[in-house]
Amino acid sequence: MKVVKTACELCAWSCGMEAYVEGGKVVRVKGMKEHPLNNGRLCPKGSVTHEYVYAKDRITTPMLNEDGRKLIGILRLRFSLRI
Ligand code: SF4
Fold it and tell me: Structural domains in the chain?
């Protein structure tokens, strides 16, 4: 199993994260102990980041309302693991 140092991007804190990659897929994430911001901890949302990556209902393309306003959900597009 490969461990990739990365950062959570679910919110502005960008906590340090280690992604455990097996067969090209992230199977688990943990907080990066040496990261000065989170010292190895992840919040409940960050600790399941890998589930967001492979969620079947994940938004992967920009979406607009018919009147052209951006959907709030478009913010979820920004999330990705840097591996
Ligand atoms: S682990 Fe939680 S607090 Fe840290 S960046 Fe991710 S969502 Fe934000």
Answer: 2-78 (2.20.25.90)
